[in-house]
Amino acid sequence: MNTFFKLAAFLLLSNLSFSQDKTCDFEIDIITDSSSTRVLKDKIIDESVFGYTTSFLTFKLFEVDGFLGVNFQYLQKSKDFLSPICIDKNTKMVLELSNGKQVKLVNSNEIVVCNDLQYDAVNKNNVRVLNGFFYFSPENFQDLKTEKVYLIKITANTGDVNFVIKPELNSEIYKTKSTPDTYFIDHLKCLWI
């Protein structure tokens, strides 16, 4: 009988260790007595494949010394011409939540950053990549812990860029299935905020 309890306890504990939350997948996780830098691996938030044009948006949540933000990358490739997108210090990222509230993030870069046009000669595609870092203010991200995001708007100085966020995304590019509308619900807890 004693062996049975040992076996049952072992199976229960091993089951708990395998069922741990896999969403906290860090690219960087450095914590010292005086500083911290934690960056989650990138996750696809939006994807569009239409005709000769493909685009996708990825996010990486990060925390540096108590400041929380999002690193985003927006990649576009097409056989056709792609219009430039530029962001500057006045650019905001606005997250529309399922409860009707908005969360605004501010751009960390003081200079104008544009997605320069590159040409992929192998696949004969025009390619544009835009990277940015946006920060939360300390009080404005609490609703993201419980509310889904249904729209992301980047107010670029070349015009707004909108992303309608799906409850389920079957990525043709990454060959994965995800729930981008719960990205913040799933990942903010990883940064102890």
Q: Your description of this structure?
A:
- This protein is mainly beta.
- The chain has one domain (24-191).
- The protein is 11% helix and 48% strand.
- It is built from two helices and 15 strands.
- The chain has helices at residues 2-18, 183-187, and strands at 26-31, 36-40, 43-50, 53-64, 67-78, 86-87, 92-97, 102-107, 113-114, 117-120, 125-135, 149-156, 159-164, 169-170, 177-178.
- The strands form three sheets. Strands 1, 2, 3, 4, 5, 7, 8, 10, 11, 12 and 13 form an eleven-stranded antiparallel β-sheet that branches. The protein has a two-stranded antiparallel ribbon with strand order 6-9. It has a two-stranded antiparallel sheet with strand order 14-15.
- Mean pLDDT is 86; it is low at 1-20.
What's a concise summary of this model?
By secondary structure, the protein is mainly beta. It is built from 2 helices and 15 strands.
Low-confidence stretches: 1-20
Work out the helicity level. Answer: 10-25%
Q: Given the C-alpha coordinates, what overall shape results?
A: globular
Number of domains: 1
Largest sheet: 11 strands, antiparallel
Written as H for each helix and E for each strand, in order along the chain, the element string is HEEEEEEEEEEEEEEEH
Integer average pLDDT: 86
User: Rg from C-alpha positions?
Assistant: 20 Å
- Counting DSSP E segments of at least 2 residues, the number of strands comes to 15
Number of helices: 2
End-to-end CA span = 46 Å
Helix-strand category = mainly beta
Strand content: over 45%
